[in-house]
Structures are given as structure tokens and as C-alpha cells.
Design a protein that fits this description.
The chain is of the alpha+beta class and 75 residues long. It has one domain. The chain has 3 helices and 2 strands; from the N terminus they run βααβα. It has helices at 13-16, 34-42, 68-73, and strands at residues 8-10, 47-49. A two-stranded parallel sheet has the order 1-2. The longest helix has 9 residues, at 34-42.
């Protein structure tokens, strides 16, 4: 906040493509993120989260996925 932070924008990669050291997707409600959400709440910093995608975005990216072309062109 001392440096002018007025909000936090969480990109859709969190929960969709960001992975931890073990290769698991990092969920928005992952407990390792709790200090961030706690600090934002304590300091009344708004958080904007892009958290909705079509269900097929969560499925394997192969030619039978209905969004395969889109996911391939704009990963």
C-alpha cells in the first residue's frame, strides 16, 4: 500500500494453468494463498479474480475437446 497498491487482479492462469512444484494446479482457494487474501482484507484492498471458464477448459487439450482450437491458438 505504501507503494500505491489500490487493488489486486488475479489472472485466470491461477486455477487454470499455474502449477506448483509437484505439477498440480494451484486453486484460487489454495491455503498457501491465504496470507495474500488476509492482507487484502485487513487493508481493505479489493481483489478481482477471473474465475470462470467453460468446463472444457479444464479437460485435456486434445482434438476431441470442443475448445481445442481456441486453446491451441490462444493458450
Amino acid at each position: 500500500m505504501a507503494q500505491g497498491v489500490i487493488g489486486v487482479k488475479v489472472c485466470k492462469s491461477l486455477g487454470l494453468t499455474d502449477k506448483d512444484r509437484d505439477g498440480n494446479r494451484i486453486a484460487i482457494d489454495d491455503p498457501r494463498r491465504d496470507p495474500i487474501w488476509t492482507a487484502c482484507g485487513k487493508n481493505k484492498i479489493p481483489v478481482i479474480i477471473h474465475s470462470a471458464e467453460p468446463s472444457s477448459f479444464w479437460n485435456p487439450r486434445y482434438e476431441f475437446n470442443e475448445h481445442w482450437l481456441e486453446l491451441r491458438q490462444k493458450p
